Amino acid sequence: MNNSDFSPTERPGTGELPHGRPMQTEFDTGLDYPRLGSVTFRRGTLTDNQETLFDEHWPRLGRLLDDTPVDVDAWFGRTGHPTILEIGSGTGTSTAAMAPLEEDTNVIAVELYKPGLAKLLGSVVRGEIDNIRMIRGDGVEVLARMFGAGTLDGVRIFFPDPWPKARHHKRRIIQSGTLNLIATRLKAGGVLHVATDHADYAEWIDELVDVEPMLEFKGWPWPDAPLLTDRQVITKFEGKGLDKDHVIREYLWVKK
Ligand SMILES: C[S@@+](CC[C@H](N)C(=O)[O-])C[C@H]1O[C@@H](n2cnc3c(N)ncnc32)[C@H](O)[C@@H]1O
């Protein structure tokens, strides 16, 4: 892995990612990783209220992808609590609904889309939720650059972008390399939880459930899972899926 090509962000307090080509770690595992270029850093506009909220609270509750490992205890102001990374939190519907039920857990939501983060920030501030922090950036890079081996108790990926066209399948976040990277970041006994409502993506994941030797596939449900697995809410995307009679598939793995 080569991290030397990473240059620090330009305006760390603003939640803005640097312009130009996004950083992509060169992995030397021979496994498959989602390729960006694809993922556009959608600008999206914040409402005036969201801007004000962002200016006030982002510096404390959020940070940008960079090469500084996250000091979880310092960021959450407490020691020894389990930490879960949610990749692609969207507007944070599940994140904000689950976090109050897992107050002992540190939840870090990773998302590229600033308006989504602004919405979650609003929920966190209004709901006085103490156990959520946010990182703006690509989840693969956040895992690779900001978390050391064996530092996470859980990773969640709920309704990842399905990239339905065959020529875009390589953009899907669930790939052999991502599963390997997640496995290295999880502690022994740590859990990966994935959900999708996209039948074709489910078939894709079905083919990958046993591909990573460090992850034991537990299927769904797994009543003895050591973390909260009930997502609590029907998300926007899940709701759309249900309208179309899509079936929701959930997947759990444990780090050996
Ligand atoms: C289909 S939405 C699902 C959002 C949310 N999990 C839900 O269930 O409502 C997928 C989200 O993943 C985000 N995303 C896609 N690729 C990502 C990446 N590489 N790192 C972080 N977030 C990503 C997108 O911006 C989008 O908000």
TrEMBL record:
Q: Which UniProt keywords apply?
A: Methyltransferase, S-adenosyl-L-methionine, Transferase, tRNA processing
Q: Where is this region: Disordered?
A: 1-29
What pathway annotation does it carry?
Answer: tRNA modification; N(7)-methylguanine-tRNA biosynthesis
GO MF annotation terms: tRNA (guanine(46)-N7)-methyltransferase activity
Quote the EC number. Answer: 2.1.1.33
Its Gene Ontology cellular component terms are: tRNA methyltransferase complex
Cite the Gene3D superfamilies for this sequence.
Answer: Vaccinia Virus protein VP39
Q: Which InterPro entries match?
A: SAM-dependent_MTases_sf (IPR029063), tRNA_(Gua-N-7)_MeTrfase_Trmb (IPR003358), tRNA_methyltr_TrmB_bact (IPR055361)
Q: Where does S-adenosyl-L-methionine bind?
A: 86, 111, 138, 161
Q: Where does substrate bind?
A: 165, 197, 235-238
List the SUPFAM superfamilies hit by this protein, alphabetically: S-adenosyl-L-methionine-dependent methyltransferases
What does it catalyze?
Answer: guanosine(46) in tRNA + S-adenosyl-L-methionine = N(7)-methylguanosine(46) in tRNA + S-adenosyl-L-homocysteine
Q: Which Pfam families match?
A: Methyltransf_4 (PF02390)
- Family membership noted in the UniProt record: Belongs to the class I-like SAM-binding methyltransferase superfamily. TrmB family.
Q: What does this protein do?
A: Catalyzes the formation of N(7)-methylguanine at position 46 (m7G46) in tRNA.
HAMAP family, alphabetized: tRNA_methyltr_TrmB
For this entry, the protein name equals: tRNA (guanine-N(7)-)-methyltransferase
Kindly list the organism's lineage. Bacteria, Bacillati, Actinomycetota, Actinomycetes, Mycobacteriales
**What is the primary gene name for this protein?**
trmB
